[in-house]
Model the fold of this input.
Amino acid sequence: MLFRNLKRALLSATIIGLLGTAAVSVAAEGTRDRAERSSKKKSGAAEVKYPEATREEPKAKGSPKLQSKLQKLVDVYNKDEFDKTRVQADELIANPAATDYDKALAAQLASQAAYNLDDTAATLAYLKQALELNALDNNSHYQMMYMLA
Done:
């Protein structure tokens, strides 16, 4: 009888040990995964949605003079004020100090605003304008091409 209880105790201890080892392994893996995700977020690198793209990504930057106007445009768009978004985008596009990047970003936001206002003709015009400027990153560029199609 003592022998049976000893066998059971050893078997139970072995099972508990194996389960404990597996749990520690899974927990460590989960911690490693969280650390990887956290470092990706901190690095600020956007996920490359089109890794096989042959288009060379432009190095264009926005005009420092227009940074506040671009931020206001983004803020108005994020507040779902689509009429104001289009007005501000048109002003930026017409601004002689605006770089191609500034104009392309404004046209992209204006296209989204026009789309939300069910203005298909304006949506297409803004998308074409942003694509012709060829100044945005590949993710944005190819997403606009997809939307245009």
